[in-house]
Amino acid sequence: EPEVTQTPSHQVTQMGQEVILRCVPISNHLYFYWYRQILGQKVEFLVSFYNNEISEKSEIFDDQFSVERPDGSNFTLKIRSTKLEDSAMYFCASREQRSTGELFFGEGSRLTVL
Amino acid sequence: KNEVEQSPQNLTAQEGEFITINCSYSVGISALHWLQQHPGGGIVSLFMLSSGKKKHGRLIATINIQEKHSSLHITASHPRDSAVYICAVISGSQGNLIFGKGTKLSVKP
User: Fold this and answer.
1) What is the per-residue pLDDT across A27-56, written as a single tens digit (0 to 9) for each?
2) CA B50 to centroid of chain Cα atoms
3) Which of A75, B34, B72, B82 has CB atoms 3.0–4.6 Å from A23's, for a disulfide?
């Protein structure tokens, strides 16, 4: 069964460092998403991406965040200068169609900022 | 006020019991997802529905668009069903989700 893969599964970094979280969506999917879940809280939308550009982003997705699809397979989330409050589980998801296609999640990347 | 409300927040059941988790939402939606989050954190989509009812094995999901309400039922519950069940709605044009806080289910043998 096709799956969304994320790396790393866990990253520990120092405050102020740059972090890149990587995702490989399912190959025929066109819509990509990043979500965040702070420990003990609900999952929150960060950004959606289609046709090589951001289609929507939340208030959380400030200038410290960026996304990229550098090579047609990987979909990355970059945090330029991490803060303690960026510690969370980050989930990548993809779907084939915008609103009607089944949504597939990766296993998540746990980011710990010290 | 949360746009997606789930109840109960926590649920403990004995193996074999019939379980219902409820979700109410206050926004217009194009579809609703029921998701399962494993203890390790991974998320799996169980159902996506925009009307009526869907069944997969021991799981049944229903939605009433007029009442803005959905339910997830688990028949003959098993300890391996222990997880957090999350209701999430698709609202807006880009297909991204608004999540409920989740219902933590624990099924005791």
Assistant:
1) 889 899 999 999 999 999 999 999 889 999
2) 13
3) A75
